[in-house]
Amino acid sequence: xxxxxxxxxxxxxxxxxxxxxxxxxxxxxxxGRSDVPPMHLVSYFVxxxxxxxxxxxxxxxxxxxxxxxxxHVEPGEEPWACTVWECREELGIEAVAAGVAGERxxxxxxxxxxxxxxxDVSLWYLLSAEASAVGWYDEREFSALRWxxxxxxxxxxxxxxxxxxxxxxxxxxxxxxxxxAPGSVGxxxxxxxxAVADGGEGPGVGVEGAEExxxxxxxxxxxx
Length: 224
Fold this sequence. Notes:
- This protein has a single domain (about 10-215), classed as Nucleoside Triphosphate Pyrophosphohydrolase, CATH 3.90.79.
- It is about 25% helix and about 25% strand.
- The chain has five helices and nine strands; from the N terminus they run αββββαβββααββα.
- A hairpin with a 4-residue loop joins strand 8 (about 190) and strand 9.
- The longest helix has 15 residues, at about 10-25.
- The chain starts with 8 loop residues before the first helix and ends in a 9-residue tail after the last helix.
């Protein structure tokens, strides 16, 4: 699949690091403990009520932050399939891709976490649902839900959110206002590998380089 059109220079660095990580032959999926392997794939999904222009965030019990729903991608599982499963499991609704990106990631991040010191390679999907359709959530994962406009998200202190949430909101605001259309991050998976391309050759950055990108200029946080 085609590569992402980065929303900013941070995302550009993250995409390049992910391309290099995938090409390095490193394992991509979490195997048991949260720090094995030290980098692994995560599917995030942000639910958008397109009529109201509001995003859904949950008060994540473990992380202590307001986060999108999501989960770790299992071996051999495609990230979109993970999103479909987690959406049913955590919100009790069917995953419907928003028109902005379809069934492809809208945003990509590489984030070092505080617990056990591992790195999440997160593919952020954008889903569409009316707020009234979300009447249940998994209380083992979240203690509460909130619907926020993009401007409200941007006014929230970043220390209460995923460290990339403001950047995601700004990219989404541009896309919804008719700015440059975002691309997508490739996610063709087989049992061992995900194919991610950016239309050219990635830089010579392996797992260590990707971990350096994850820790550069972004606050680490406790993984969901």
